[in-house]
Structures are given as C-alpha cells and as structure tokens.
Design brief:
single chain; 17 strands; alpha/beta; Urease, subunit C, domain 1; 2 domains; 21% strand; 19 helices; TIM Barrel
C-alpha cells in the first residue's frame, strides 16, 4: 500500500528548541517551547505548561517554518529518470515527447513521488503548477494525491504548451498532437468544477489559481480572455516570463501586460531572468512577486537568477524547485545555497544575500507570493502548524553556532527529523509516517516504464 493513511492532528509541545521563527516580532529564540493544538500554533515561549500535550524533545534541533515552494510542476517528477541534457533529450524535448501520453494514473504516480520526496525534504506548502492537464481526470488525480498525503497546496490549473521562444506557427504544429492551441482558451469550466467539488472539502489545505500561457504562448485575444476569466473566478494568475534570451528577443511580456493594464494583485511570475529595468519598475510598482528556481535555471543553461537585482528593485522574490526532473531532487537547502553563491559571485561580496534573507525567500516570502502568509510561512501564534525540526547533532551540522548559517550552508534533507503540516506529523524520527517510500518508488517506476512503452520511446542509456 502506497499511502498508509494520515495521522491525526495532535496536541504537541516541542521542548527546549532553537526556533528560527521568521516572525520579526519573535526573531530567533533559544531554549524555547512551541505548542501545537488542533492544527494551529497556540503558544511560543520558555517552559510552556501545555497540559496534556505530547512532549517532543527539541533540544538538538532547529525548529523553523516549513518550506513554501512557489513554483513546482510536480507531475513532471515521473520523468526524472529519462530527462537528460541537451536539446534532444532535455526537459522540453522529453516533456513534448511523453507529456501527451500521460494518463491520470501517470499523473498521480508523478505527484505521489514528487510530494513524498517533497514532504521528506521539508516542503510543507507547494504551488503545484500543473501544466499538463489534458482532461478533468488529470486534475482530479493530481488533487487526490495531495488530499491523501495531507499537503498544503496552491493548485494552478494549466494546459500543455510549447517553449516560449518558438514562433506561434511552430507552437500550433506541436500542440496539435496534444495540448491547447495558442488561439484556444483553456478549460475554465473544469477550473470552476474544482472550485466547487474540491476546495470546499479540502479542510483549508487547497487554494486555486490558473497558470496562463500569456503573450508568449497565446494570441492577444486568448490571453486577454483568460485574464478576464481568471479575475471573474477569483483565481490567482501565474505565468512563465523572460526565462531565456531567446524569448526576450521575440517578445517582452511584462511590457505588453503593463501596456494593456493587466498587471495587478494576485499575480505570480516565474523566472524573469531577462526583464528590462523598466519592466522591473512595472513589477515593483505593482508588488508582483517573482519565483526564482536556481537549480533548474542553471541546469537548463537559462542563466543565473538575478535574485539580488530584483530585491533591490523592490520586487518580492521567493524560491522554487520548478520541476525535480530538472533540478534533480527536492532539496531546498541546496537551492538556498546556490542562490547565495550566485549573488556572492555577481556582487563579488559573500554577504550580498545573507542566510537569514534567503531563509525568508524559502518560507515567508513564498507564503506571501501565494497569498497564504496569514496562514503559514512563520512561527506565529494563530497560524497553522507547518513546521520542520532539523537535527543539529548530525556529522554535517555540528557544531552549530549560528542556526541560520547552519540551515543554509550545512543542512540537507536527511537532517530533517520531523515535518508537520497543519498539525499532523508527516515525518518523525527521519521517516515518513503516511506513505511507504518503497511502494511509492516501485509505483513510479512501473508507470514510467509503461508510459515510455505507450509512447514508443526508448530512453538513451546516457545523456
């Protein structure tokens, strides 16, 4: 059995821990307790009474908010084993070759693999940007996995699309085999069904948005219509933007959206590696957040994410994995280290992006980008209990002097002892509680093998 069942929400008190709260009013605390009841954070402070609570020893741990990933195509995790490098076998080629052959069961296998790993690695909230939905069943299969795993998810419904650097004519030829054509509007009726059938029964763990294709991947009539429908249905709007030089040689999406009056609240842009200074000003003026994916941007040769430049311009920035078929694994610690390192090089200054600032990008800034900062992203009384406990007595962590430095520069997913989402402990003593990892892996391998057989694809032995 892949999923064992969700544990109950309990009454817990984490004792004598070091807490990186990400709450400016609380700061960093040592020797503190954190009390959780009914899925919420109810008290933070030393020697809490916490009558009747189950005590958890936090003396050799750093307790912090769970990671908030603001841009992850989780379904694509299933393709991790067959994505190589280069144009022939890289992400875009493999997605184009196999994406149209996915069944709802394949979607579920990919999301199960991705989120089981994500939970183990401390991702407690995910923006699941599901951009391979060909039928309503694909969305249902995706959402059902999140329900069974107990993840907090902002789900962006999105259709298959082509690479943004392509001319529209080539996009039409490719998408004719499976996808929504650039002059076709996405299925907003299905998004409405999700809002009616899934969100009210999600126990507050599901919010909804749409991943639009925008000016680079759809005609003006279509992206204007999709914008209007999204606003009408109260959906957040996410869009890939300026991820490659090839795209911006063809089109400047931020400028177009500004000129048409479409920039505004409830938007999220991914990448934005090559926007102009004026476009930066447009985003900053509208407080539109940008999700940056250091690991995938580097592997794909897209470029170095200009985290510091965006922050200096006043643009809210958060971090994301993009897809673990590219970034290799769900390691937010590594993403933080790479972001810090790239800023150090760009500025010839090792303090250009501090450990504490990059921790904010991986937690509270991600929550703000998704409109969830009133619920998660910091250890704040009244918020939901989405927490990590990272052991400090591991060989790669000890001795710890500065907890933020240790988390960013030393920690890895294996150091996470405990993961809590909405007051449920989903990882304890380093082991997942709700799923059988071996069964998850076996299920994913079987589905990938059958997917390749169905598509008539024989992956090369090496990239």
């Amino acid at each position: 059995m892949v999923v064992r069942g969700l544990p109950r929400r309990g009454h817990f008190v984490i004792r004598d821990t070091t807490a990186l709260t990400m709450d400016p009013a609380l700061g960093e605390l040592t020797g503190t307790d954190v009390e959780v009841a009914d899925g919420a954070l109810v008290a933070v402070g030393p020697r809490l009474p916490a009558d009747g609570a189950e005590s958890i020893d936090g003396s050799n741990c750093i307790t912090m908010p769970g990671f908030v990933d603001s841009h992850w195509h989780v379904w694509g995790t299933l393709l991790r084993g067959v994505v190589g490098d280069g144009k022939k076998h890289g992400w875009f080629a493999t997605k184009g070759r196999l994406g149209g052959f996915f069944t709802p069961e394949d979607v579920a296998a990919g999301v199960m693999l991705g989120m089981a790993e994500g939970i183990a690695a401390g991702v407690t909230t995910v923006h699941d940007w599901s951009h391979n939905i060909m039928r309503y069943g694909d969305a249902e299969a995706n959402l059902d996995v999140h329900r069974r795993l107990g993840t907090r998810v902002h789900f962006s419904y999105s259709a298959p699309s082509a690479h943004p650097s392509m001319p529209m004519e080539k996009m039409r030829a490719i998408l004719a085999r499976g996808g929504v054509l650039p002059d076709e509007v996405m299925d907003f009726g299905s998004i409405g069904r999700i809002a009616e059938e899934w969100v009210p029964h999600s126990d507050g763990l599901l919010t909804l948005g749409v991943g639009v294709r925008g000016p680079a991947r759809s005609t003006p009539e279509v992206y204007r219509k999709e914008w209007a429908l999204a606003r009408e249905q109260g959906l957040t709007i996410s869009m890939h933007c300026a991820g490659t030089r090839a795209e911006v040689r063809r089109i400047h999406q931020v400028r177009i959206l500004h000129d048409e009056g479409l920039l505004g609240p409830g938007m999220l842009l991914a990448h934005c590696l090559y926007i102009s200074r004026t476009e930066r000003e447009y985003l900053a003026a509208n407080r539109i957040p940008v999700s940056m994916s250091p690991m995938s941007s580097l592997r794909l040769g897209m470029g170095a994410p200009p985290v510091g430049g965006h922050l200096a311009a006043g643009i809210p920035v958060s971090l994301s994995l993009d897809t673990t078929a590219i970034s290799a694994c769900a390691d937010v610690f590594a993403a933080m280290r790479v972001a810090v390192g790239l800023e150090s090089i760009a500025n010839q200054d090792p303090e250009a992006l501090s450990p504490r600032r990059v921790l904010e990008l991986a937690t509270i800034e991600g929550a703000r980008a998704l409109g969830l900062d009133h619920l998660v992203g910091s250890i704040t009384v009244g918020k939901r209990a989405d927490l990590l406990m990272v052991r400090t007595d591991a060989l790669n962590m000890a001795p710890v002097h500065d907890p933020a430095v240790a988390i960013v520069h030393s920690a890895q997913p294996a150091n996470i002892d405990t993961v809590m989402i909405d007051g449920r402990i989903l990882k304890r003593h380093g082991r997942l509680t709700a799923v059988d990892p071996a069964a998850v892996v076996e299920n994913a391998a079987e589905h990938l093998s059958e997917l390749c057989r169905r598509a008539g694809y024989h992956p090369p032995a090496s990239g």
